[in-house]
Amino acid sequence: MSYRLPAPLGNAIDRSSAISFTWNGKKLKGFEGDTIASALLANGEHILGRSMKYHRPRGVLTADFWDPNTTVQVDDEPNVRASHRKLADGMAVSAQNVWPSLKFDVKAANGLVGRFLTAGFYYKTFMKPAKLWPTYEHVLAKFAPGGAVDLNTPHGRYDKRYAHPDVVVAGGGPSGMAAALAAAEAGSSVMLVEHEHQLGGHLLWGSDDDQVAATELAASCEAAGVEILSNSTVAGRYEDNWISISQRNHPGVIERLIKARAKTLVVAAGTIERPYVFQGNDLPGVMTSGGAQRLIRMYGVKPGTRAVVFTANESGDSAVEALQSAGISIARVVDARSGEGITSASGSKSRVKRVTLSDGATVDCDLLVTAVGWTTPTSLLNMAGDRPVYDADAARFFPAGPPDNVLATGGMVGDGSRNELIAHGRATGELAAGRAVVVRHRIQAATARATPVDGQEPDYPADERTPLDRARHPEVYRSTTHGIVDYSEDVSSKDLFSAAGEGFDSVELIKRFTTATMGPSQGKLETVNTVAMLAEARNETIAEVGTTMWRPPYAPISLGALAGRINEPTRVSVLQSWHEANGATPILAGQWVRPEHYGDPAAEVLNTRTNVGIIDVTPLGKLDLQGPDVPKLLSLLYTNKWMALPIGGVRYGLMCAEDGVVLDDGVTARLDEEHYLMTTTSSGAAKIWHWIEMWLQTEHPDWQVHVTPVTTGLTSINIAGPNSRELLGRLTDDIDLDPDAFPYMNVRRGTIAGVENCIAWRIGFTGELSYEIHVPSGHAVHVWGQLLEQGADLGVKAFGLEAQRIMRLEKGHFIVGQDTDGLSKAPVTGLNPLLKLDKDDWAGMPEVAWTIESGDHPVIVACQPDNGSVVPEEAAQILRAGTTEIVGRITSSRMSPTLNRSICLAQVTKEFATPGTSLEVLLVSGERITATVQEHHAHFDPEGARLRG
Amino acid sequence: MLLVPCPHCGPMNAGDLTYNGESHRRPDPKTCTPKEWRTYLYLRENPSGWLLENWYCSSGCRKHFKIERHTLTGELRAPVLPGRKPGATQGDMK
Ligand SMILES: [Zn+2]
User: Fold this and answer.
1) Contact call for residues A187 and A284 (beta carbons, < 8 A)
2) Contact predicate A499/A513, CB 8 Å
3) How many CB atoms within 10 Å of residue B17?
4) Residues with CB under 5 A from ligand 1 (ion)
5) Who's near B52: CB < 8 A, 6+ residues apart?
6) How far apart are the C-alpha atoms of A625 and A677, rounded to whole Å?
7) Nearest alpha-carbon partner for A861 in A903, A896, A902, A799
């Protein structure tokens, strides 16, 4: 049978546009504009799900976003709010939390064993014995509500946006629309955010006049240039009006997170109708007065045939009119204002059938509508520091007074006719716009480089709004029976009373103990009832109990929206296209995409050691330092001495943080009288730049040093191998490469392959004779090509990062962050001659001095497995022989193509650092092997004859 | 997110700056005791109230500056620093 009502009822649906969908496999039809729930009700499907713990049948209660028990699965998407999500053609909708079917649910037996599921059952039932915890987890997981996650679901698209509006209005009811309109007319840029699908708020399910007024106001907002965000939620308000907005209707994305810096926030969130607590209050067919009116007037759906209405306010009276207009017979109106009441409802397994009144009479019906009062959703005001205050005469909470840049209007602050609400909204919008002007002026005045502000700061507008009256309302929370307080968590008033009896006297504690208010509706329906139950149980007033703290988000935000787009930037050198064209296997090193190898890293090593190799080392951090005080800066940052570095000299340096831990290393060259080029590790480039700025600006503002990062401005190429001098010589005329004229650890500037202003220095990371050249990046492709062309007969070949790592390990050079970690103080490196304790100051010096003094630190050693064919994994533990005592770890390990055996660097305690010591290394397989500590860090050419040649 | 007034760029999202924590004096590394040095490294006053802090305009003009923040209310104000008259606004800071 169809429960669809004839037009004009149903202002949200378009009857000319039918939509097909399935419900648990059954084919049904709805209309454009229907929610999933309204379409199901129109088809006579009134059980939409089962409750979380007791698996009781549940139906529509509020028919809006907050409806607690209409969560369904739609295609591959679990946990969809059926009373909010619009119906779309072809949707496959199914019930969640049911087994084996919606109508015959095995777990409904929980209702019989309910005593195990009382307040705090999570904490009590599954405590002991601990060895059964995995079993408990298994059992609980089966009872957890929620739909099925489809692991094959394609990646959704989400996005973010940053906005800087003058005014954000949260809530698109009459007051919110009026505020947005007035602010826009006053010249503000305005974002109007409405939780539901269309503007209008309660006018949408009000009288015909209300509905016309809603349409007109919405049109005026649009015409005034207000940015309208419907089906969007202001989820949070943070310091200085940083507003998060979850936008669910942006084309092309599932959800978009807007971060708006508003100058004024207007909160017009309206009120949320409270359910009544009595036995049977969760039966399908029991609903709020707003829910019934929304179904009838917005969706043209008949929620029942014979109704009892329990009313304490005008909304109940209005519901009676709506029910009558829908042809529903009114079995009884029970008016709380004249002392009448209801005691309980009973029914079949699937629907309410009978209501028992306070006077003992029973009335048959299939629909029970309650109108017992309002919850003020003060969340956004709470986030701004407001603490709501309970007004017993109005039976609801009101804001105490938010800060100046947050204004509340509408039902949150009082009651009134439609015109009174609009008038208050308009006054609020004007005030918001006036205050936004002042904030804008202040921001501009505080910005040194902004256009100078004209004139004096405008006066800060005072709040001269005429307050809205507060309508008197009886306090109607619970009948003489117990019922459900939190529908989504299945917490009853009985649970709350028993928790109060157990001593939970604070609402913040009872909430966590019982999980009341902690479900998907985030307390919007449950908080005030929870407070009222606690007050009643403890014989206190609601004002004395107070309310819980509402925190962000106002409504759930998907994790996808928080993550946004995957947008990790990567960097490449200008030579990357050559690498790609020549078979490089890419590796992501920090932010840099680099060639790991060009096919055979071992062959690249051997060619470099035999002939000559070139590697693109552009990611090396490069900082150009100029000024008379550069030597002082270098002396402060490096552990060694820098005051006497001659022009043309290059020196290695180690940097420490103030706690003495190794921070970075690299070489720095003196190019000219007051001109230096510093290199850092690739990953340390940005960090060291900040580090230098910090020292120069805070501790030594009198030093004259300019620091400029030039990492990508210069492309860096290392030319290594016995033929490197011959190769470079073919490309330069003005750099004298004679070993006496240009020795090891020196720098020269000149022309390379016709490119002027190149820098070349001799260093030895690979252990070979090598020249590292830094070329203006615009010409780097040319220089790289010339090196390959001119060196063809010398056997030149490009080598990648892996070959370089092998060669540096053969030479025993440690890498900061690989062979050292966040606890490795400088003496760990073994570079003690570089730790100059006789200098006045350097970063980390005291800690390094005390570490040396105590001698209590591990050291880096080179070691070789006794079986040279075994390569222990990096981070493999080193143990005291035959025990499980950890005395160190392998920090780097490779098979050496040069030595044809495995080689390692390790950190070990001093006791195990003596050359010749046998180490026991625990492999990942569990096998233990032995390795021997070497005399030198370098496994190959420890005297350095090759690189100094 | 707090708006932190950089003396050069004006109010900036705190996330665009680097927070360098409570302002503290660096002891003389030649003469300090381990206790003094480790107090400098690790121990902070963390008061409930006004706190002098170091900020770095890392995504803006790269200026290091000090500001006073009220740790309870989030209120910010220009600190009185040596050589600057009391009541100076952020615009006067350099
Ligand atoms: Zn700045």
Assistant:
1) no
2) yes
3) 20
4) B 6, 8-9, 57, 60-61
5) B22, B23, B66, B67, B68, B79
6) 6
7) A903
- Paired residues of A864 in beta bridges: A932
Q: What count of CB pairs under 8 Å joins A to B?
A: 64
Nearest to A448 among B8, B20, B40 (CB): B8
Pair A872, A903: CB distance under 8 Å: no
> For chain A, which domains are there?
159-271+378-446 (3.50.50.60), 477-564 (1.10.10), 577-614+714-776+792-799 (3.30.1360.120), 619-711 (3.30.70.1400), 843-948 (2.40.30.110)
| Residue A277 near residue A484 (C-beta atoms within 8 A) | yes
Number of domains making up chain B? 1
* Structure tokens given for A569: 């930037």
Whole-number Å distance, alpha carbon B74 to ligand 1 midpoint, is 20
Calculated CA dihedral for residues A346, A349, A353, A358, nearest 10 degrees: 10
Residue A242 pairs with which residues in a beta bridge?
A238, A261
Query: Which CATH number is B67's domain given?
Result: 3.30.2270.10
CA distance A812 to A583: 29
> What's the average pLDDT block by block, 10 residues per block, for chain A (949 residues)?
90 96 96 98 93 85 94 91 96 81 57 52 63 66 68 87 97 98 98 97 95 97 98 96 96 95 98 97 96 98 97 97 97 97 91 96 97 96 94 96 96 97 98 96 80 78 96 96 93 94 91 88 91 95 88 90 87 97 95 96 97 97 98 98 97 97 98 98 94 95 96 97 97 96 97 97 93 98 98 98 97 96 96 94 97 96 98 97 96 97 98 97 96 96 88
Residue A240, min C-alpha distance to chain B (Å): 6
- Please state whether the peptide bond connecting residue A776 to the residue before it is cis, i.e. omega within 30 degrees of 0: no
Q: Provide the pLDDT for residue A646.
A: 97
Confidence of residue B89 (pLDDT cuts 50, 70, 90): very low
Neighbour tally for B66: CB within 10 Å:
16
Sorted by sequence, the CB contacts under 8 Å of residue A32 that are 6+ apart come out as A13, A14, A17, A18, A19, A87
With H, G, I as helix, E, B as strand and everything else as coil, classify residue A581.
helix
Q: Say what the pLDDT of residue A771 is.
A: 97
Distance from CA of A839 to the nearest CA of B (A): 9
Q: CB distance B11–A449 less than 8 Å?
A: no
Whether B52 and chain A come into contact, CB under 8 Å, resolves to: no
Is-contact A877 A926, C-beta < 8 A? no
Is A261–B58 a contact, with Cβ atoms under 8 angstroms apart?
no
For residue B32, being part of any structural domain is answered with no
Tens of pLDDT along B5-46? 998 888 999 999 999 999 888 999 999 999 999 999 999 999
DSSP designation for A388: -
pLDDT > 70? residue B87: no
Alpha helix segments (H runs only) across A46-167: 121-124, 133-143
CB contact under 8 A, B3 and A658: no
pTM: 0.86
Nearest CA in chain A to B32: A846
For residue A112, the model assigns a pLDDT of 44
**Closest residue, chain B, to A698 (C-alpha):** B64
Closest-CA residue of chain A to B63: A697
A-chain residues near B3 (CB < 8 A): 239-240, 261
- Here the ipTM equals 0.89
Within 8 A of B26 by CB-CB distance, chain A residues are 699
What is the domain extent for residue B53?
Answer: 3-27+37-93
Closest-CA distance, A677 to chain B, in angstroms, reads 21
CB atoms within 10 A of CB A501: 11
Sign of the alpha-carbon torsion through A136, A138, A139, A144:
positive
A353: closest CA among A338, A339, A363? A363
- Determine how β-strand A306-311 pairs with β-strand A367-371: parallel
Report the gap between the CA of A830 and the closest CA in chain B (Å).
22
